């Protein structure tokens, strides 16, 4: 079942992947404005802001494009975020590709999982919960949380627990709706607050 899900995830992702050919050096020169929230190398020190160092290049381009789309549609389309909409609005497609090339080339700093979340987090991440129809995270994000760049699934390992929890809750509430074919919304709507707390803390130290 997991193998079948993996193949489906890959085929869906490949059909909607964004071609990103950026210049990392040009991206570095353009990244100064990003540093306040994400850190100069993409390792945010603010737990509400994601670490973007080492994130898949195509995924970063996709998110920037969707923030810009949200800015143009009043949040009806794309990924709506008051801060990022404004940041992405003036960016050209080449700017996005250059920034993505730079941040994807950086090394993400590892996070930690508090001991009390390890066992339950591993069980839910690796096995899901068939009784509640919760697909295992490992199916699309891989055993180490590195995702699949070609399929469009992001690296989630090492991410701030606060940020991950906020995104899962946003998917659950339908406030974030830029996920591929509604996959994350479908899964998140079945998660309890406790599930989200466990998963976000487990993922923080996953490597």
Automatic annotation (TrEMBL):
Task: Please report the stretch or stretches of sequence annotated as the Cytochrome c domain.
Answer: 22-107, 116-207
Description of post-translational modifications: Binds 2 heme c groups covalently per subunit.
The keyword Glycoprotein belongs to this UniProt entry's keyword annotation: no
- Compartment(s): Periplasm
Q: Where does heme c 2 bind?
A: 137, 140-141, 184
Q: Which GO terms describe its cellular component?
A: periplasmic space
Q: Which residues form the signal peptide?
A: 1-20
> Which SUPFAM superfamilies does the entry mention?
Cytochrome c
Q: Please name the InterPro entries in this protein's record.
A: Cyt_c-like_dom, Cyt_c-like_dom_sf, Cyt_C_IC, Cytochrome_c4-like, Cytochrome_c_Oxidase_Subunit
Molecular function GO labels: electron transfer activity; heme binding; iron ion binding
Residues the record lists as binding heme c 1:
34, 37-38, 84
Q: Which UniProt keywords apply?
A: Electron transport, Heme, Iron, Metal-binding, Periplasm, Signal, Transport
List, alphabetically, the Gene3D superfamilies matched: Cytochrome c-like domain
Pfam families linked to this entry: Cytochrom_C
Task: Name it.
Answer: C-type cytochrome
């Amino acid at each position: 079942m997991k193998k079948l899900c993996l193949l489906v995830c890959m085929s869906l992702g490949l059909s909607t992947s964004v071609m990103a050919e950026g210049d990392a050096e040009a991206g570095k020169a353009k990244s100064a404005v990003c540093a306040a929230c994400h850190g100069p190398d993409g390792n945010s020190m603010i737990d509400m802001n994601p670490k973007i160092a080492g994130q898949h290049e195509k995924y970063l381009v996709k998110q920037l494009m969707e923030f810009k789309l949200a800015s143009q549609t009043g949040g009806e389309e794309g990924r709506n975020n008051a801060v990022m909409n404004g940041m992405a609005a003036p960016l050209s497609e080449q700017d996005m590709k250059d920034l993505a090339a730079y941040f994807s080339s950086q090394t993400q700093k590892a996070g930690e999982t508090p001991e009390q979340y390890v066992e339950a987090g591993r069980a839910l991440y690796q096995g899901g919960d068939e009784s509640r129809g919760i697909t295992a995270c490992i199916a699309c994000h891989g055993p180490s949380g590195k995702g699949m760049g070609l399929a469009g699934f992001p690296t989630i390992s090492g991410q701030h627990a606060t940020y991950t929890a906020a995104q899962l809750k946003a998917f659950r509430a339908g406030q974030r709706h830029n996920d591929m074919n509604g996959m994350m919304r479908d899964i998140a709507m079945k998660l309890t607050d406790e599930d989200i707390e466990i998963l976000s803390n487990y993922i923080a130290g996953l490597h």
